[in-house]
Amino acid sequence: MSTMNISLPDALKSFVDHQVEEGGYATSSEYVRELIRKDQDRSRLCGLLLEGAISEPGPMADGAYFEGLREGIRGRT
Q: I want to staple 31 with a disulfide (CB 3.0 to 4.6 A). Which of 14, 25, 51, 72 is the partner?
């Protein structure tokens, strides 16, 4: 595992320390790793949303569409 050192103003350091104590994190590194993972998830979700927004429209999601999905599921079981 690599190491990264960061400098924080006192107010941010206090905030991180509080989050570690209250959030059940063992260390500030664990807290920061969790923040980075959440940011990665957010970035992936944004990408998927943008991809969906520029894609061609799919079939109409009406009652018949959902009934077809249900029939497909029933056929698998």
A: 25
- CA–CA distance, 64 with 77 (Å, rounded to integer): 20
Residue 44 in contact with residue 55, Cβ under 8 Å?
Answer: no
Domain ranges of the chain: 10-76
Q: Are 46 and 52 in contact (CB under 8 A)?
A: no
Residue 16 near residue 30, CB atoms below 8 Å: no
Averaged pLDDT, groups of 10, the chain, 77 residues long: 94 97 96 97 98 92 93 89
Backbone Cα Rg of the chain: 22
How open is the CA angle 51-54-58, to the nearest 5 degrees? 95
